[in-house]
Amino acid sequence: MTLDLNGAKWQKSSRSGAAGHCVEAANAGEGIAVRDSKNPAGGVLIFTSAEWDAFLAGAKDGEFDRQG
């Protein structure tokens, strides 16, 4: 999937901390784009809306919590 990211409104988590080292996400029409906030000119990951929804559900359910 290719998305036009010109004019994308990138958002960081409110939990990214004072240093701001986090990922940023942007709604890009038919998908969600994710990039590293420290390197906004670098690569971008693109997810379908269904993939993004599955990721958010897993995060909310603790699927990605570290165990030690």
Describe the structure.
This is Regulator. Pfam families: DUF397 (PF04149). InterPro entries: DUF397. Residues 8-60 form the DUF397 domain. This protein is 18% helix and 26% strand. It starts with 10 loop residues before the first strand and ends in an 8-residue tail after the last helix. The longest helix has 12 residues, at 49-60. By secondary structure, the protein is an alpha+beta fold. It has one domain.
Topology:
Elements: E1 11-12, E2 23-27, E3 31-36, E4 44-48, H1 49-60
Antiparallel strand pairs: 1-2, 2-3, 3-4
InterPro entries: DUF397
Pfam family, one: DUF397
Organism: Actinoplanes utahensis
Given the helix and strand composition, which structural class is it?
alpha+beta
Question: Strand arrangement, largest sheet?
Answer: 1-2-3-4
Question: Roughly how many Å apart are the termini?
Answer: 36 Å
Shape: globular
Number of strands: 4
Radius of gyration: 13 Å
The number of helical segments is 1
Quick take:
The protein is an alpha+beta fold.
Name some characteristics of this structure:
68 residues, alpha+beta, 1 helix, Regulator
